[in-house]
Amino acid sequence: MHIGLVGLGKMGGNMRTRMRNAGLTVVGYDRNPDVSDVDSLAALVDALPSPKVVWVMVPSGDPTRSTIAELKELLGEGDLVVDGGNSKYTDDAVNAASLAEKGIGFVDCGVSGGVWGLENGYALMYGGAAEDAAKVMPAFEALKPGDTEDGLVHCGSAPGAGHFAKMVHNGIEYAMMQAYAEGWELLEKSELVENVPDIFSSWRTGTVVRSWLLDLLTEAIREDEHLDKLRGYAEDSGEGRWTVEAAIENAVPMHVIAASLFARFTSRQDDSPAMKAIAAMRNQFGGHAVHTEPPPGGEANPDV
């Protein structure tokens, strides 16, 4: 299979490598010429045989919308665009309808796996017509975890089904991270326990709370037991907000996920210990930036 990949950042670059390792021919384009295979989006499209398949992995919102609009002018009937970024599901119907005006197919795909996806594979949640998904299936098979039949699911034929499922996945992730973080803070504060990293490590085997997030937090607190190197500040990337909005629209009670989202807002006002754990987990699984205290003489200490 030949496929074009737009966006070669933390996720896209590793996805290109994983697909190439599986034998696919991948032409990548990025605004950073050091990682790009071609010098323009037009050159990427020209390098692909028909029917052309182009996978977009750029930030959600305007960057994705403008990229898809440009691809609409470059592609033709029978070609396919895959939006694998974290777009809001409501954007997908708009993009699909616009591309359909020229007979271009559209598949939306939620991708989970972070910076570890190259080694472990990616969980893929896709939406769109089955005939469109078939055109990109070799890429799906290359990217998904190789040791399981799970990790790849057709969430629905309507555009947006995949991104909606990924949105809910990330909302659940918010709540799980918050629970681990609050438990870590309580253990840290207690005078009864002395070996918090070992306690968390012990939960990784045989307990009902074991998970990959627990593995990542355990590794983080083994590296920095009290998370002194981090500020208790955690961003939200959008999907938590969208999940709560969708819950309101569908009258679904969402106490825990909503509370975990609001906790992140709190982190921007106070240096919350629990938010240090959230920041550590986000950095471990996704390579997300963390906020550290400035060095003496830096911005926080102008008089030193």
Automatic annotation (TrEMBL):
Q: Which GO terms describe its molecular function?
A: NADP binding; phosphogluconate dehydrogenase (decarboxylating) activity
Which EC number(s) does UniProt give? Answer: 1.1.1.343, 1.1.1.44
Alphabetized SMART domains for the sequence: 6PGD
Query: What sort of enzyme, by top EC class, is this?
Result: oxidoreductase
Record-annotated 6-phosphogluconate dehydrogenase C-terminal domain positions: 162-295
One annotated GO biological process: pentose-phosphate shunt
What's in the keyword line of the UniProt record? Gluconate utilization, Oxidoreductase
What the record says about family reads:
Belongs to the 6-phosphogluconate dehydrogenase family.
Q: What is this protein called?
A: 6-phosphogluconate dehydrogenase
> What is the source species?
Nocardioides thalensis
